[in-house]
């Protein structure tokens, strides 16, 4: 059987902010994500999960990256050159985001928030009403985000990301504001919809309990010894000790 072609492949990535009060260093030795794959980024608050998602999402620019391939496109040279135009098109067409706060547009209805990411160059993966129904949002389509609950907003954010039919969804703590049963149900929906579309997902989470319950492969943030250059390193392994 042939090995699946990775949709996202990153090697030798390093990022730093500072020096001074903002001094922060992060490195990612290797990440490989196949079509439909799911990967969690675990670590304590402030360990750099959102920063790493921004780097993978082509929003932050790494100081160094040996390899950055997204759906077969080699983006490392453009990142090294700071060529923002060259990364804008793959960012738009291949990546989807679920923000920690939901990030919905307050002046649009739920239906329009979901529809806004529909691909311009191919059919949408779902009808808005069908996708909303899958996520239990069918009665809320005409409401504005302020008139629905936080859990419902997170499900709208998931629907919006899925509607864009991206190759990779980057999800920043999509269940952090939810009680455990709702968090579990929301993550189950995200996993099911992503698997159905073959969408790969990278999800930041500080909930080791949820990561363990869903048996998610995980890259965990750890401090590197000063002798090895210090900073935070994201590497495979258990995140025991993180808050449940
Ligand atoms: N725009 C910024 N300017 C300066 N420092 C920042 C900025 N954003 C984040 N930081 C700092 O970078 C470090 C990593 O932050 P980041 O938000 O990536 O961590 P996190 O693991 O996602 O945290 P949390 O779980 O609380 O969301 C922290 O020390 C944070 O204070």
UniProtKB/TrEMBL annotation:
Cited InterPro entries: AAA+_ATPase, ABC_transporter-like_ATP-bd, ABC_transpr_LolD-like, P-loop_NTPase
Species assigned in the record: Paralimibaculum aggregatum
Family per record: Belongs to the ABC transporter superfamily.
Lineage: Bacteria, Pseudomonadati, Pseudomonadota, Alphaproteobacteria, Rhodobacterales
One Pfam match: ABC_tran
Record-annotated ABC transporter domain positions: 8-242
Protein name (record): ATP-binding cassette domain-containing protein
Residue spans crossing the bilayer: none
PROSITE patterns associated with the record: ABC_TRANSPORTER_2
Lineage: superkingdom: Bacteria
GO molecular function, one term: ATP binding
The entry's keywords: ATP-binding, Nucleotide-binding
């Amino acid at each position: 059987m042939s090995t699946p072609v990775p949709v996202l492949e990153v090697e030798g990535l390093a990022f730093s902010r500072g020096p001074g009060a903002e001094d922060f260093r992060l490195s990612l030795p290797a990440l490989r994500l196949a079509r439909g794959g799911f990967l969690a980024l675990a670590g304590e608050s402030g360990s750099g999960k959102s920063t790493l998602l921004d780097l993978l999402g082509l929003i932050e620019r790494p100081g160094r990256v040996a390899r950055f391939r997204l759906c077969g496109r080699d983006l490392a040279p453009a990142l090294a050159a700071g060529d923002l135009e060259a990364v804008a098109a793959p960012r738009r067409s291949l990546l989807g985001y679920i923000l920690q706060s939901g990030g919905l547009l307050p002046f649009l209805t739920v239906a329009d928030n979901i529809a806004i990411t529909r691909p311009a160059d191919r059919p949408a993966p779902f009808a808005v009403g069908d996708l909303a129904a899958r996520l239990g949002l069918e009665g809320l389509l005409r409401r504005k985000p302020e008139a629905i609950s936080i859990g419902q907003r997170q499900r709208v954010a998931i629907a919006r990301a899925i509607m864009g039919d991206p190759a990779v969804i980057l999800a920043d703590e999509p269940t952090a504001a939810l009680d455990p049963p709702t968090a579990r149900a929301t993550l189950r929906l995200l996993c099911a919809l992503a698997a159905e579309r073959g969408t790969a997902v990278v999800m930041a989470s500080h909930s080791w309990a949820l990561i363990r319950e869903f048996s998610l492969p995980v890259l965990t943030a750890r401090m590197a010894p000063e002798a090895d250059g210090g900073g935070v390193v994201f590497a495979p392994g258990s995140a025991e000790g993180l808050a449940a």
